[in-house]
Specification:
The complex is a heterodimer of chains A (109) and B (118).
Chain A lengths: L8 E5 L4 E6 L8 E7 L6 E6 L4 E2 L4 E4 L5 E6 L8 E8 L11 E6 L1
Chain B lengths: L3 E4 L2 E4 L5 E7 L6 E7 L6 E7 L5 E2 L8 E7 L2 E6 L8 E8 L9 E3 L3 E5 L1
Parallel strand pairs in B: 2-11
Antiparallel strand pairs in B: 1-3, 3-8, 4-5, 4-9, 5-6, 7-8, 9-10, 9-11
The chains are: A mainly beta (109), B mainly beta (118).
């Protein structure tokens, strides 16, 4: 079973920052927080992952709370191509990715 | 980033036939590959974990005799849907985990194969 809770859907205006929340209150010390997204009829795309420190790459930023019970994925300047289902997954290294229902993010022009 | 390919991208077959789907890691070695299935408007469901040189590990409820998995090399895993029926119509997606990412578990996904069984 997925160990995360995400809103079912969100909307964001093009050009604005999209902030996607994720609750993972039962996360274990050795589990990472992963974010993937799936654009319609494509395979999931890796976005970012982190353990306890905030992370940033060319796609997004990941903010993890100090107690690690929740996190936020930030797309700094959302574009129409960022419309997708975003999955937050917690997993230790050698485990399996278990996908929940994710958040359907719609970027509006 | 690491690239994973799948072939074919789309296949239509008659009921009762078998279909083979290939998953390749193009620029890295993957000791572990995963096979998922996704029905319309649903999330991805893990079917099996494929380890190079050993038997696949199937998730509960997935018939291993119907979904044959072979992971013969560090860059290729195949999924064969045997005696396919219309209820097997789905989007099949593979992923590969970098051998060097055993601790972090990062996986890269293929583009998926849409199977339609008539």
């Amino acid at each position: 079973d997925a160990k995360t809770t995400q809103p079912t859907s969100m909307d964001c205006a093009e050009g604005r920052a999209a902030n996607l929340p994720c609750n993972h209150s039962t996360i274990s010390g050795n589990e990472y927080v992963y974010w993937y997204r799936q654009i319609h009829s494509q395979g999931p795309q890796y976005i970012i992952h982190g353990l306890k420190n905030n992370e940033t790459n060319e796609m997004a930023s990941l903010i993890i709370t100090e107690d690690r019970k929740s996190s936020t994925l930030i797309l700094p300047h959302a574009t129409l191509r960022d419309t997708a289902v975003y999955y937050c997954i917690v997993m230790a290294g050698a485990q399996k990715l278990v996908f929940g229902q994710g958040t359907r993010l719609t970027i509006n022009p | 980033g690491a690239v994973v390919s799948q072939h074919p991208s789309r296949v239509i077959c008659k009921s009762g036939t078998s279909v083979k789907i290939e998953c390749r890691s193009l620029d890295f070695q993957a000791t572990t590959m995963f096979w998922y299935r996704q029905f319309p408007k649903q999330s991805l469901m893990l079917m099996a974990t494929s380890n190079e040189g050993s038997k696949a590990t199937y998730e509960q409820g997935v018939e291993k005799d119907k979904f044959l998995i072979n992971h013969a090399s560090l860059t290729l895993s195949t999924l064969t849907v045997t005696s396919a029926h219309p209820e097997d119509s789905s989007f099949y997606i593979c992923s590969a985990r970098l051998s060097s990412s055993i601790l972090t578990g990062e996986q890269f996904f293929g583009p998926g194969t849409r199977l339609t069984v008539l």
